[in-house]
């Protein structure tokens, strides 16, 4: 079942986020409390939108969240986080989450996100219609 994501989903999403991104291939070092802070910040942003998927008994299996941003006379959408339970990946749940989120935002003209190049994630996003940006680079400091 896919439905709109709310602050009530924060604990379940935070646990899923830490579990997913601490495992291969990401091997990051997320504490649940830090994941909760990140997701809380995203959800508290004006014009934030998200969807989540759960089992019939309510167990969180995935989510996608980001925010609308005005660019000139149109809205763009920054997809900030997306996460699917590792046991359910490559079964269409990520695509279903993206489609549901797009369904909530039919007037958004452009979508964008940041992810690792040449990764399973970039392959997934390309299969779902995203492409590498032609003129835009990501710069970091320091």
Binned strand content: 25-35%
Overall pLDDT confidence: 94
The beta-strand count equals: 5
Shape: globular
Count of domain modules: 1
What is the CATH third-level topology name?
A: Aminopeptidase
Give the SSE string. EHHEEEHEH
Q: How large, in whole angstroms, is the Cα Rg?
A: 15 Å
CATH architectural type: 3-Layer(aba) Sandwich
* Classification by helices and strands: alpha+beta
Question: Helix content range of the residues, please?
Answer: 25-40%
How many helices? The count is: 4
CATH superfamily: Gcn5-related N-acetyltransferase (GNAT)
CATH class: Alpha Beta
Oligomer: single chain
**Regions with little confidence, pLDDT below 50 for 5+ residues:** none
Which strand order does the major sheet show? 1-2-3-4-5
Brief write-up:
This protein is α+β, with helices and mostly antiparallel strands. It has helices at 10-22, 32-44, 93-104, 120-127, and strands spanning 2-4, 48-54, 60-71, 74-84, 110-112.
Structure description:
The chain is an alpha+beta fold. It has one domain (2-127): Aminopeptidase. Helix content is 32%, strand content 25%. The protein has 4 helices and 5 strands. The protein has helices at residues 10-22, 32-44, 93-104, 120-127; strands spanning 2-4, 48-54, 60-71, 74-84, 110-112. A 5-stranded mixed β-sheet has the order 1-2-3-4-5, with helices on both faces. Helix 1 crosses helix 2. The N and C termini lie far apart (42 Å). The model has no long low-confidence stretch (mean pLDDT 94).
């Amino acid at each position: 079942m896919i439905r709109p994501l709310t602050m009530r989903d924060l604990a379940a999403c935070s646990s899923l986020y830490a579990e997913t991104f601490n495992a291969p291939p990401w091997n990051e070092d997320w504490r649940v409390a830090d994941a909760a802070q990140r997701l809380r910040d995203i959800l508290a942003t004006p014009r934030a939108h998200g969807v989540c998927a759960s089992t019939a008994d309510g167990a969180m299996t995935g989510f996608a969240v980001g925010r609308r941003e005005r660019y000139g006379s149109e809205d763009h959408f920054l997809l900030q986080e997306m996460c699917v339970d590792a046991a359910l990946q490559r079964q269409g749940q990520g695509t279903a989450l993206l489609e549901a989120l797009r369904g909530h935002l039919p007037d958004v003209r452009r979508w964008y996100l940041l992810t690792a190049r040449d990764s399973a994630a970039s392959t997934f996003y390309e299969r779902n219609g995203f492409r590498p940006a032609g003129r835009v680079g990501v710069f970091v400091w320091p």
